[in-house]
Design brief:
Elements: H1 4-14, H2 27-32, E1 38-41, H3 44-51, E2 66-69, E3 75-83, E4 86-91, E5 120-125, E6 129-137, E7 145-152, E8 161-169, E9 172-178, H4 184-187, E10 204-211, E11 218-225, E12 229-230, E13 236-238, E14 250-251, E15 262-271, E16 274-289, E17 294-312, E18 315-325, E19 341-343, E20 351-353, E21 355-365, E22 371-382, H5 386-390, E23 400-411, E24 416-428, E25 434-447
Antiparallel strand pairs: 1-2, 2-3, 3-6, 3-25, 4-5, 4-25, 6-7, 7-8, 8-9, 9-10, 10-11, 11-15, 12-13, 14-16, 15-16, 16-17, 17-18, 18-21, 19-20, 21-22, 22-23, 23-24, 24-25
Length: 448
């Protein structure tokens, strides 16, 4: 993986000088209608083609400024990326130093209580960046196909991790991508913080899904997800049910998860930023009941209302309300904690799905094409796990979390952006109280 990015960049640099294949059997010639390969700036038409199959997410890599392509744009290949060092200061806690946090403002990782001598932390983080490769073939035809790969750091380690890898063909998408359950347009305005609001439905899944074309504003989608999950940065966090070292009556090692998660949604758009979506997900959890000596299955489910409102051109509102049972791996702040499915005290040997919810509100103000102001507030919460959480380690004891952010972004040039941000979060537990953390940070981002 460490050598993959330099090789990709070298290929893009060398591509213009490589002789084009012109034999009659050349697939590129036959499909594109041209044997000529060019290298140059991406035009508005090419950017529109690229954007159709690029991921929509917080701080996404913009469509690259240069591309290898045929004259008619039937074939396009781009390599782009972002380098975005961050400088910041935690006030009230040392969230930056916690496992799985770093530059990600993970409210569920706020230490409770804040320890004396650790109620602040200054940091400079230069390892916030990513590189992506995108190839589009047969563009603007019914058989248009696109492949997208993204690797980058997680803001904690300089090692590269695979963050996205998927193909798109005829409204189908398959690979490692943001789950279809996530409404990326409604989840949040942009943040410097890679994590984002605590209550956002957000995770990366191994998924195959279908999204329909628009029928007078109506669209629908459905998918199959692997019943495991990854973080928003693409690295594996684990399953969302626990292991008890033989102390409980449910066994997870002897029951494979044979049924995928099934997310789906239906949406109506009045315009690009005036839209409403209703989403749902069905999950299945298999486990061994050691009291009855049998394999049992139980359902998890979730529903979500989300969308945007644009009352005037310069202002965009974001909203999301999600509720369900056993959907912790899809909730930003609860993902990675063994709380979705817990023992049922009333029925020895059985498990139960925990109720939980996430709420997000946000607003963007865009006075000009160069300047943007954002504000947002979010909450994630879980119920009916008090006794279980009190038996876990402090880091797993979770009742609810609050998240707030305000920021400003200024586009210095088409390649360079500066931002400044204030974050506030609170984590509350079941029996050891709660704690806050505030963060002030700034970022300079170079996009290429």
């Amino acid at each position: 993986m460490k050598t993959a990015v330099p090789l990709l960049i070298l290929a893009a640099i060398c591509a213009p000088s490589m002789p084009a294949q012109t034999t009659g059997t050349d697939d590129l010639t036959a499909d594109s209608g041209s044997s000529k390969i060019e290298f140059g700036r991406t035009t508005p038409e090419m950017k529109e083609i690229l954007q159709r199959s690029r991921p929509v997410e917080n701080r996404a890599v913009p469509a690259p400024a240069f591309a290898v392509h045929t004259p008619n744009n039937k074939f396009i290949m781009t390599i782009g990326g972002t380098i975005a060092p961050v400088l910041g200061y935690d006030i009230g806690n040392n969230l930056y130093k916690q496992d799985g946090a770093g530059i990600s403002f993970v409210t569920s990782a706020i230490p409770v209580p804040a320890a004396a001598g650790h109620k602040g932390d200054f940091y400079i983080n230069p390892i916030n960046g990513s590189v992506d490769l995108q190839i589009v073939g047969l563009a603007n035809t019914p058989n248009e196909i696109s492949g997208y790969v993204k690797v980058g750091t997680n803001g904690i380690s300089p090692s590269l991790v695979l963050q996205r890898a998927f193909i798109t063909y005829r409204n189908f998408t398959a690979g490692m991508k943001l789950t279809l359950m996530q409404d990326a347009y409604a989840c949040q305005p942009p943040t410097i913080d890679p994590e984002g609001p605590s209550g956002c439905i957000s995770n990366v899944a191994y998924e195959i899904g279908y999204t329909s074309k628009s029928y007078n504003g109506f669209r629908f989608a459905a998918a199959l997800d692997m019943p495991t999950f990854y973080s928003s940065n693409g690295y594996y966090r684990g399953k969302d049910f626990p292991e008890f070292d033989g102390k409980q009556v449910a066994d997870y090692g002897d029951a494979e998860q044979l049924i995928p998660d099934i997310p789906a949604w239906v949406e109506y758009s009045f315009s690009q930023w005036n839209r409403i979506r209703v989403s749902a997900i069905l999950r299945n959890f298999a486990y061994r009941d050691l009291v009855a000596n049998k394999t049992r299955h139980m359902a998890g489910w979730g529903v979500m209302l989300s969308g945007n409102i644009q009352p005037v051109k310069q202002i965009i509102l974001y909203y999301q309300f999600a509720y369900g049972k056993g959907i912790g791996s899809y909730l930003q702040d609860i993902a990675g904690k063994p709380l979705s499915f817990v023992p049922d005290d009333a029925r020895p040997g059985r498990m139960t799905a925990s109720p939980m919810a996430g709420f997000n509100f946000g607003v963007s103000f865009n006075p000009s094409s160069k300047l943007q102001f954002n504000a947002m507030f979010s909450q994630s919460r879980i119920w009916k796990v008090r006794d279980y959480c009190n038996a876990l380690d402090e880091s797993q004891n979770y009742r609810y979390a609050l998240y707030g952010a305000v920021n400003c972004f200024y586009n210095i040039t088409p390649y360079l952006q500066w931002g400044i941000e204030y974050l506030w979060g609170r984590r509350e537990t079941w029996n050891i109280g709660g704690a806050n953390d505030s963060r002030i940070q700034t970022q300079i981002a170079f996009n290429f």
